[in-house]
Every structure is written in structure tokens, then in C-alpha cells.
Amino acid sequence: MxxxxxxxxxxxxxxxxxxxxxxxxxxxxxxxxxxINGISQYGYAIVTIFGAFIINVISLEVGHILGALAGGYAxxxxxxxxxxxxxxxxxxxxxxxxxxxxxxxxxxxxxxKKIRPRLFLWGGLIVYFIEIxxxxxxxxxxxxxxxxxxxxxxxxxxxxxxxMIYNFMPFKLDTVTDGYRLATLTTTQxxxxxxxxxxxxxxxxxxxxxxxxxxxxxxxxxxxxxxFHKIYQALxxxxxxxxxxxxxxxxxxxxxxxxxxQKIFIIQTFIYFMKAKPTAAKTYYYKLDSKxxxxxxNDTNMITLSTYLYVAGxxxxxxxxxxxTFERQHISIKKIHESGRKAAESILFNRVLKLVKKKNSxxxxx
Length: 366
What we know:
4-stranded antiparallel sheet
């Protein structure tokens, strides 16, 4: 089990414990006090909890919006559970799209010369504290213990607390959280790296070349992300020597988890295939152990699919495997949120696809 998966399970366990506490100590007593019986109990619980959840999903992103504006950012997208408001040249438009986060995501780009990323990241928690005060005022100022409003207000606070626990854990879970980002801003280098990452993403969104990449000496989580931007740009430019050099440097970091170690292995394999003759690539592939070959065939990250497409088309010459890989890339590319990375991954996949089509001229991909 990966470290992120283990930590995620612990956090989810804490959230479940809070949910049980709310059910036993708030919702169950509410049934008795309000005289709710039978199937009505389920209706009350579902409506109240679902309503509290939606309120907190919205308030979290409202916090991000306010924090972003106060911190000198322009809003690009605001996503509530897949319902996204996306900035276009004609203004904001509503779309359904994937997001990075538990309940939603707000993406931004620097607008002012001096930005304050902490305001953006703390925004959700600040709004939650305001939400607590409002709910307490509503609960005890407008409702008595015999009215549903008091219990509903307390449930809103409890559900919000569960989401805040997840969102402000200072380590990486199954998604990148505000707490994880804040933990990387504890040093001057970390703050500079965060600003550089946002500069890179802004350049990609505007269709500009983000080079040169400003990478600090310290290999922290943020500088590693910058290095991967640099590595992908080198791959796109077919500057494999630079990509290998940076991969070697990143691999020395003690902060690498299993996911990044696997990614480095895949990119190194991809580079070897691109540089080597087919016979040498075939020898290299069959020297990999069964676990590595299985990972290559099963993983759905785009760079892995590009690498495995080479295996299927150039080494094993299996049309069924190549076609299956071609189909999977349509799904995988949609999961990439970074505009620069999405473009780079498409270029690399199509580069391999061109080689495969040249070697197997009769193959047709739909």
C-alpha cells in the first residue's frame, strides 16, 4: 500500500468516526425531540445531511474565490462536484468537467505582480469559521430545541468540519489538498517554487513558452513538480539528454514516494525506447522483471500508455494491445488538468503512434 493511500484511509476513518458521532449524538436525539418516526427518519436524515454537504461544498469554493481575489489572482475555473464555471473570452460558461480535489476545485492564475498564495489557500477555512458563527446564531437565536432548524444548523457545522479535516491535512492524500499546499509554503524557497509553478501554468494556459524554468536548489515537493515540467518540455523538444539529467537529479530526493519512483522508471524507459534501435529496445524490455512489465501494461497514466504503445506496436507487434492502448488514452488525457502537461502528453503519444503506424502500415486505429 502506498503512503498516500494509507494516510487517506486514516483520514477517511476519522471522517467516518465523526459521521457516527453526529448520527448518534445529534441526529438520533433529534428524532426523539422532534417526534420523527418510521420512514420519515430516513427522509429527514438524507435531506439534512445532503443539504449540509452541498452548503459546505459551495462555501469551500466561495472561500477559495474570496481568498484568490484578495491574494492577487484571477479566477479561471470554479468547480462544484463536476459542475464547473469556466472563464472564456466571452465570460464564464457552465460545463461539466473533472476536477482535482474531494468536492471541487478553484483554479487561478496570478493577476498582480505580488501575490499572496496563503490567502487563497486559507480562504476555505476562514469562510468555514464564518459559517460556524452564522450557524450558531441561527441555531440558538432563531430556533428552539423543538424545531428542526437548530439541529440542521449543527449538522451543517459537523459536515463542514469533516471536509475541513480532509482538506487541511498537511500531507498528500488521494488528491492534492490545501493543507498539503500550505505545508510546502513554510520556507522562502517553497513560496518561490509555488509562485513559479503558477507562472508556468499561466504561461501554458496563454499558449506561451514558460521557459526558462526557475528551479530552486532544494528538492522539495514543489521544486520536484517544476522539474517534471522541465522534463516534459525536454521530452517534447526531443532533448533526451536534459530529460535524463533532470530525472537522475530528481531520483536522488528522499521525498519520493512510490508513485513518483514508478513515474521516473516509466519516463526513463520511454526515453530509452525513443533513443534505441528496435532490437535494443526489445532486449531492454524483456530484461525488465515481470512486475515492471505488468505495471507497464496496466497503468493508465498517459506517459505509461505512450511507453506501452511502443511495446505493443514495435516490440510485440500486437494490434489488439496497441488498439486497446489507443482507446485508453482518450480517457486518460481527459483526466489531466494541467494544460501544458496535457499538450505534452498528446505530443509524446502521437510521436509513438507515428512510429507504430510506420512499422505496421496495415493497422487502422479508430
